[in-house]
Design goal:
about 220 residues; single chain; 2 domains; about 10% strand; Rossmann fold; about 50% helix; alpha/beta; globular
Length: about 220
Amino acid sequence: MIEPVSMTSLPIIISIDGPAASGKGSLAKKLAEMLNYDFLDTGALYRRVALKVLSENIDPADTDAVIDAAMRFKDELGQDYDDSALRSDNVGSTASVIAQIQPVRDILVDFQREFAQKAPNGAVLDGRDIGTVICPDADIKFFITASTEKRAERRYKELQSRGISVTNAAVLAEMQERDERDSIRLNEHLKPGHKVNIIDTSDMTPQEVLDEAMRIVKFYKP
């Protein structure tokens, strides 16, 4: 059983960013549990809005209808939800479409920032642009990465475990395409002055990643 760790009495914000299958989600959940902080998977927010859109038979290409659904759904974003319902390919592809709609992004950005600021003990948020866009003044910033090959291998095993038939080559190609689309945004984290803690998880176990992150957190002084 994980024992919570006592930190500063002041609530702090921890941002965890990185590419797909780098291990950032697993780290974020474990770190939040260790510290007894609130946790937010920001990518799941887009999937939840996507699921709302699909449940109402809204065409994702109908921008006005999607924005209306997001506006009506924003008060439910803080409620518990069934994570398994968000993992279908249909929800994922719909989330990718609606994530390009700026008013929808604005709604979710506002929610993420409010979540971080109002967390009573502290907050851990994971995503792609938490430390650069959502919470640029986060107290501790992590950028979790791994080689493309290692991340593709992890994603392949994940899909196989879910009964989805894919090939290693197809997953690797998709990962490389996604990295190309994300390259500009992800490179923002590595600019001088951002004070980001980079952890390459390629050859690390989840426990080793958590231990390294906790070592950094314990040295934090407000």
